[in-house]
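Hi P.,

Sorry for the delay on this. The queue was packed all week, but I finally got your sequence through. Input first:
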Amino acid sequence: MFMGIFSSKQIKILFVLITVSLLALTILSGCDAPDGTRQVLQVLEKEERIEEDQNPDEILEGRVGAVVSAHKLATEAGAEILSAGGTAADAAIAVAAALTVVEPYFSSVLGGGTWALYYDSETDEITSLDGVGPVGSNADLEDFTARAEFAGIHYSVVPGAWDGWMLWLEEYGALDLDEILSPAIRIARDGYAVSSSMARWLDMQSQLISNRPDTARIYMPQGSLLREGDIIYQNDLADTLEALGNVYRGARDQGRSQAIEAARDYFYRGPLAEAIVDFSDNNGGYLTLKDFNDFEAEIVKPISIQYTEEIEVFQNPPNSQGITMLIALNILKGYDFSGMGPDDADSIHLQVEALKLAFADRYYHIGDPKRIDIPVDELLSEEHAYRQRQRIDMQAALHWPIEDGLADESDFNNTTTFHIVDKHGNGAAVTTSLGSQFLVIGDTGIHINNRMRMVSLEEGNANQLTPGYKVRHTSCPYIVLKEGNLYILGANIGADNQPQAQVQQFINIIEFGLNAQEAIERPRFATTAFPSGTYPHGVANTLRMQQGFPSALREELISRGHNISVGGAFGSANIILIQDRGLDAQAGTDPIVDTSLGLIIK
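Then the structure:
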């Protein structure tokens, strides 16, 4: 599982990780862990708590590391990099690369886009990573409208994720790129078992796969679709990742920054960009070499609200939809939840109505800030939150159309999320998305995005298709600080489900005192009383609820005007909850994802 020569300290960690892996295999084969928890493993060495009066260096030695993701192989890749001395940023790249291999229908370090938050313990600063690319220069509204119902490369924007990961490597990383990519390359070459989740996606997309030769070579190697338990190999992808690592290593003697730039150039100004653009040209896409050459990811300032005096919530700024979560929480903080619970009708009604108003704000105002002026300060102001509260009737549900709250004033599941904390106290909250299924670029192994399914075709819409500008992006992981200390790293996948389920995670923990796993396992609800973020942007005006809510609760919500539907897709989630100033932690993983795994390492 691990490679290289280890110090005595690393051997100690290695022993713990091997134990974790064996326990994980036992659990995933159907046996319970000692504490009865199937999805989350917490491995704690027997050591005394560090007292409050000990010095900071001793406290640092007692901190835990944590990795949680939707696939055990990716979680183990992140743990491997942490054990080798990597930071949360290094481990994040390793996890993202491994997920590119084992969840190629959800995300890609090469073909997708990423919004992420990073907490730097040395500076006590949180930054946001904008690793999403723009619409291709050759995009045409009339042409796209005519083909909007059909999947293909015309749905692809410039992949921004790789440049974003290289920014993190340079700014926050400690290890070399080739070492970080090695777990993903090993998994891709050695092969891995098709999970039940992947088998479902293969079945759903079987027709598309069979019609795409480059894709079929991977998923139909013997002429028939791979099934659950079959071994899948991603050799082309391994070659591409290995080439990037080799380019980095070849320039390493010139300096670390120069080596990172070489890896950037290989993608955006070299053979990978050429392969993608050639594919685009030959299949009716809009991407150009200039689009790749000009693209640069950015580390930007996050947005935040003060929920209470001690709780501050951070999100990614537009073009991410993260502000939607903050707008809703800003409204909700004006209510007293002390007499309520997770299954209380008032609690759910308030959350749903606040989310409706927040999504209305998203519809009217959120797009690419380089294309339109976005009133971020107004949308997050106390005054706007107060006015929005006045629009909530505790006995009557809002329905679309909902008027713009500032008018009188001046991904479905094609996404994955994971979180990491290292023993230095740094934290990474990541939601990275492909938004596409099984469109492979030649022999590169790269699965390309279809992010333009999120673009609006309405004239004057804040998210209107505009060549060279970004589509509003659904990815929006969050970080919570408590009394200035890292507290929660969380997210939920699933387009419009993301900010909604994340609000519920937060309320379940902060207001109702649930632990990480309880907060994740709670049944979810989602309003559709706003134009959907994905084409064709319809409005259902329903309140979708997962199985598990009491029937009496549903009846009460119906009496208030909610159009209830039961079942459907609500995305999946995972979370890390930091305790005792980093000396302990909880990881929550979603039981609907049979491959998910959280590791807490002391």
